[in-house]
């Protein structure tokens, strides 16, 4: 009888060991799966931030009152084609060293004219309703001789703060090659009180 009890105790002990081993394997498997999922998610985020979305910080006052200095934005770049009204980040040009942020006013093939007496901007003969601008569209120093049509592969941009923006109106910026566009501004993420689309 004592032998049977001892055998039973060993069997119970073996079962407890098996259960502990299964629990250890289960925990190890869970940790491995969690770490694997985390790594995949991290790689996806890195790829998205590298090739699709980027974060930029606004520097200066040329886009007021739409954007302010130090605003942080998420911009998208994947398969992007510039359209009127888009706010875009542009890499440095021949005459300026740092990226700039402006609004697309006209794209390739469109005609553009600016009446500096009234401040009215016309694209393809239609006066733009620019509710987003601050101040009047004035003539800048070293003014650009605007071509009859915007050439292929180029855009014309201006800041929303028309009296405080150096942009395509001046030869110092001029027409922007589409290939120099880093991306389109989509969402303001800072300050938190202004979180949301930059087009609202």
Description:
With 200 residues, the chain is of the alpha+beta class. 26% of the residues lie in helices and 26% in strands. The chain has two domains: 1-54; 58-197, Umud Fragment, subunit A. Strands 1, 2, 3, 4, 8, 9, 10 and 11 form an eight-stranded antiparallel β-sheet that branches. The model has no long low-confidence stretch (mean pLDDT 85). Strand 6 (120-123) and strand 7 (126-127) form a beta hairpin.
How are the SSEs ordered, and which strands pair?
Blueprint: H1 2-52, E1 53-57, E2 72-76, E3 87-90, E4 100-107, E5 112-115, E6 120-123, E7 126-127, E8 154-158, E9 176-177, E10 181-190, E11 196-197
Antiparallel strand pairs: 1-2, 2-10, 3-4, 3-10, 4-8, 5-6, 6-7, 8-9, 10-11
The mean pLDDT is 85
What's the tally of helices? 1
Helix content: 25-40%
What's the structural domain tally?
A: 2
- Kindly name the structural category: alpha+beta
Strand content: 25-35%
Q: What does the oligomeric state look like here?
A: single chain
**How many extended strands?**
11
CATH architecture of the largest domain, by name, is Ribbon
Q: Describe the global form.
A: elongated
The CATH superfamily of the largest domain bears the name: Umud Fragment, subunit A
The poorly predicted ranges are none
CATH class of the largest domain: Mainly Beta
């Amino acid at each position: 009888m004592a032998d049977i009890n001892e055998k039973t105790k060993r069997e119970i002990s073996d079962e407890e060991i098996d259960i502990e081993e299964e629990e250890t394997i289960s925990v190890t498997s869970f940790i491995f799966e969690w770490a694997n999922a985390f790594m995949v998610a991290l790689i996806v985020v890195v790829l998205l931030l590298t090739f699709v979305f980027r974060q930029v910080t606004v520097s200066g006052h040329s886009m007021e009152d739409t954007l302010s200095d130090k605003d942080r934005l998420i911009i998208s770049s994947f398969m992007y084609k510039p359209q009127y009204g888009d706010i875009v980040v542009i890499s440095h040009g021949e005459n300026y060293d740092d990226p700039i942020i402006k609004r697309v006013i006209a794209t390739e093939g469109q005609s553009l004219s600016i009446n500096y007496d009234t401040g009215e901007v016309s694209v393809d003969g239609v006066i733009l309703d620019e509710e987003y601008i601050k101040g009047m569209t004035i003539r800048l120093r070293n003014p650009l001789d605007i071509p009859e049509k915007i050439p292929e592969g180029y855009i014309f941009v201006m800041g929303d703060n028309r009296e405080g923006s150096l942009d395509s109106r001046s030869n110092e910026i001029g027409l922007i090659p589409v290939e120099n566009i880093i991306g389109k501004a989509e969402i303001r993420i800072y300050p938190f009180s202004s979180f949301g689309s930059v087009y609202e």
